[in-house]
Amino acid sequence: MLAAWRKYLISMNRETNHIAIWGTGAKGVTFANMLIMSEG
């Protein structure tokens, strides 16, 4: 799960990546869940 999330973050811009890392609260969990659902 984390591998997929990390891979996605790496594919994003560095600024966006930093924002995602700083927002690893409720939003981070929700975002991770969305990604997991997308991954199947």
In short:
The chain is mostly helical. The protein is 82% helix and 0% strand.
Write the layout of secondary structure elements.
Layout lengths: L1 H10 L2 H9 L3 H14 L1
Key words describing this protein structure:
40 residues; globular; mainly alpha
| Biggest sheet details | none
Alpha-beta content class: mainly alpha
User: How large a portion of the residues is in β-strands, by DSSP E?
Assistant: under 5%
Bulk shape: globular
| Alpha carbon gyration radius | 10 Å
Uncertain residue ranges: none
**How far apart are the termini?**
11 Å
Average pLDDT:
68
Report the total helices. 3
**SSE succession:** HHH
Q: What is the count of β-strands?
A: 0
Question: Percent range for helical residues?
Answer: over 70%
Can you characterise this structure?
The protein is mainly α. It has a domain at 1-11 and 26-40. The protein has three helices and no strands. The chain has helices spanning 2-11, 14-22, 26-39.
